Amino acid sequence: MVDVLIIGTVGYDNVETPFGKRTRALGGSASYASVAASFFVEPGIVAIVGDDFQKEHKQLLLSKNISLHGLTQVSGKTFAWGGKYEYDMNEAKTSFTDLNTLLEFDAHVPEEYRNARYVFLANTDPVLQLKVIEQLKNPQFIVMDTMNFWIQTKKEDLLKVIAKVNVLLLNDGEARMLFNTVNLQQAARQALHLGPQYVIIKKGEHGALLFSDGKHFNAPGYPLEVIKDPTGCGDCFAGGFIGYLAKQGSVDESSLRKAIIYGSVVASFNAEDFSLDRISKLTYAEVEKRFGEMKEIREF
Amino acid sequence: MVDVLIIGTVGYDNVETPFGKRTRALGGSASYASVAASFFVEPGIVAIVGDDFQKEHKQLLLSKNISLHGLTQVSGKTFAWGGKYEYDMNEAKTSFTDLNTLLEFDAHVPEEYRNARYVFLANTDPVLQLKVIEQLKNPQFIVMDTMNFWIQTKKEDLLKVIAKVNVLLLNDGEARMLFNTVNLQQAARQALHLGPQYVIIKKGEHGALLFSDGKHFNAPGYPLEVIKDPTGCGDCFAGGFIGYLAKQGSVDESSLRKAIIYGSVVASFNAEDFSLDRISKLTYAEVEKRFGEMKEIREF
Asked: Does A292 reach chain B within 8 Å, measured CB to CB?
């Protein structure tokens, strides 16, 4: 059994930002989210890679006590993505997406993972997200992410998944698109009507918002002077969030709020360097220290 | 002597938003800021109007215990502005600006106001802002606002004013423009180098940031489901901010943080209706209640 089950991608990224450039750097939603969760618990991932996936990258994930029983390796090339961030660092312009072996991904959850109580469904085809949910034996808390692409192409399937999860995670742009309103409060209210108990809207530098029935939490953004590469920040947020909750073994309002701050903290570190460079060296003491700073910047 | 001196405009606005339309509604930075400040102290304003300025509007301001000794009435038309907000409500598109009698405004501060200790210089020509500062006898705390237009046309004068105030108030777009960076932390650091002790960056729905030497405060935005008309919110923020500080008679870090929340609270009410309709009916009990909610939404 794993503490947290994470379904997503493991891949290679070509990233360019005003601060530099990396080619074939380790990336993918499951990589970022699992390393983020590893500060709190021992997560396991379900993902697929090709035979070009490097041992050193497998080793990096294993060194963080991430279970890789669910990482299928098949012949062919690993999923690869290329993107460029302009000066404002808000959104990457995708230069290429080579699905490669990801086309063979069937979201099969290994028997030893099916008892997982905390589950993060990273951004992927909602049909696969649904398939994962159906394989779970005792899910207590399912968090899902998605993206514009699925909102535009598979909205009906997406709505089915949303109805089955505890937390819908969206960024502000996605929330506005999915619910056809600029007002995030209105978007959240509509989202809650679809079934999830909680909706979290990520706003990048502006922090994150938690909505549930009649309650609202506003999490600050950590004030970073330099953002080298925001790739994976959303997944780090999700990984830190669910990792902390699984460690607590509690999903009450107070734990959820703290979990959002822990997620934000790990995400803020992640933005400080390319790929997983910063979070793979990050210590738990650094996480705790920044959590304290987040409290301080909100006190009045 | 007045508790808070406010220099700005009193005028008539034609405003259109997706929620309605108003013509010749009371507006202007000094109107909004002084009503906002009036929840805490008795402010006085220095502004100019024409002979078309309506008695009922003078009456409204007087009913809030706002001193109008500094409100000069001359023959001619009152300053008028027209703007339209699109669906996203972020920024008004100006349809007209008729300076009218504002062209005669000489920023003369009446003798009985010159001892004011708390001063808000609302957005206006930096040359006039400087002139006001020179007339003050015992300023303890000066807060200034500005706008893109002055950054683009009178940057040198603007920098001189900034060097003489305690607090520079900017919105995020202005901060990025003035300091030529997208990163608000970098912008704030540069701003502090110019002289002021504090920089506040207003981010609309995303709240506000306070920066001083080595300290940072992140104020949440109040979650409004409907924003009818954001006109004047920045001035309400400033008025509530300085009004609270003057009432406290203290400008320590703790008071400043609370003042930012009070400013945000009054601004959030202001957005709920057109012109000064909401804040002219607002009660202090409502302000206190929402202040409490602001505490609750950021607790973790």
From this structure: no
